């Protein structure tokens, strides 16, 4: 009825719509596929029920961004330096057209805005250490719609629609709790130095610690202070707690471990069993003051987990099958196994976090590689 020209235009329009639909479907996110991944020793699924993702393969080199939030402690600073060091390694650098780093502070909205800007600017992958685990759901959907690989690490996302890379943070709290239970079989008063409020790491580590202490059946009482994973802050709030409560039988810190112990030393308070992070300064004190009553368990994961997150993103962009949730191993040591030059480094800064290698992923950094970098946005 409308003649041949209309039919031609109709067919052309239909073809265009079909192409757009196909493009949209391809950019709608990863396919859920069967595992294992090609690098099964590195990309270890969180559980046997963890699903596997496969993104459509993209040609490189890639534009990759790191959207960090909080930067007010040495772990985050070292993490950013490590990310930059990893991006400069020859095998990684050749895969990158651009590597961008921003830190937005405690403002969740600012971090979300930064991630959205990277998506809108056509970046191929965005790595995020999230300020809040539940606030990124709309971002995840936008990333999937744009075909952008989104990888969260350390403080991960409360979703199974983006890739998460992490250690068992709750298990780390359990590890510290087990040490205190072992050292204090009758229970006692514990100083707990917590991290940044609202983050998944703080919540999970606290939960693991408290559930372990409770499950022991012993009479443990905990005084909680907020150290924000920062030595200076942890030292101040620990000193305040000692001044008020006078006596503790044990102590634990999610970060700022060196500052916590120094508060006891400065106050002349008895040194007590400590379960805390992997700061080099903390381990130095554990080694030097073991004869004064300081018995330690030091566990955590170095900031090099950011390198595993970048490696995961690059693998996903290349079409490699990866788990949706990747479990990293913990690095830990306890008395009497602290050894200078092996797991404690007297010639390195107190602020250096030990445990910056993931051999199963081919990742291993020296202090010199990391500390020579800048933590500034780039």
From TrEMBL:
Top-level taxon: Bacteria
Segments forming domain Periplasmic binding protein: 64-319
Keywords associated with the record: Signal
Localization of this protein: Cell envelope
InterPro entries, per database record: Peripla_BP_I, SBP_2_dom
Signal peptide, first to last residue: 1-27
GO annotation, cellular component aspect: cell envelope
Main subcellular location: other
Entry keyword annotation includes Electron transport: no
Family: Belongs to the bacterial solute-binding protein 2 family.
Name recorded for this polypeptide: Ribose ABC transporter substrate-binding protein
